[in-house]
Amino acid sequence: MILVSACLLGLRCCYNGCNNTNQSVLDLRKKYILVPVCPEQLGGLQTPRPPSFFIEGDGSQTLQGIDNLKNNKNENVSSLFRRGAEDALKICQLLNIKTAILKERSPSCGTHYIYLKEKLTKGMGVTASILKSNDIRVMSENDIRRLDERKN
Ligand code: SF4
């Protein structure tokens, strides 16, 4: 069983009401049970919704209680992102899921890159960060060729 960013599987949960369907991720259904989750919707954000970005740091700071996420209406949305991340973790724990494939560059799901203001920067989204710190293997849609490699 693998937790997957719901937008990668075709669900229209992106901030603009679209999806990020990725055929390589969808093809994994032949071998794995894929569990779609959108942490931003879980956290209580609407779809469509204004896009959000970090004003400092990344998701690891958000998890420490720093309110570093705003949307483009200047509203602080950090607590909703935390809530969604916590519930995504809860789903992994309920189903004993040990691997997640998450959409790169998202403030929730980014595993290597996030947007710091408007600049693409190295860092992790809030959900990627909470999963990783709870010993769940996180990878982006660009990393799935490594899926069968041993975790180390
Ligand atoms: S929060 Fe994650 S699953 Fe939801 S739309 Fe953004 S990238 Fe996709």
Describe the structure.
Helix 4 (78-95) packs across helix 5. The model has no long low-confidence stretch (mean pLDDT 97). The protein is built from five helices and eight strands; from the N terminus they run βαβαβαβαβββαβ. Helix 1 (23-27) links the parallel strand 1 and strand 2. The strands form three sheets. It has a four-stranded parallel beta sheet, covered by helices on one side. A two-stranded antiparallel sheet has the order 3-4. It has 152 residues and is an alpha/beta fold. Bound molecules: iron/sulfur cluster (SF4). Iron/sulfur cluster (SF4) is lined by residues 5-7, 13-14, 38-40, 103, 106, 108-109.
Keywords, separated by commas or semicolons:
152 residues, alpha/beta, four-stranded parallel β-sheet, 8 strands, globular, binds iron/sulfur cluster
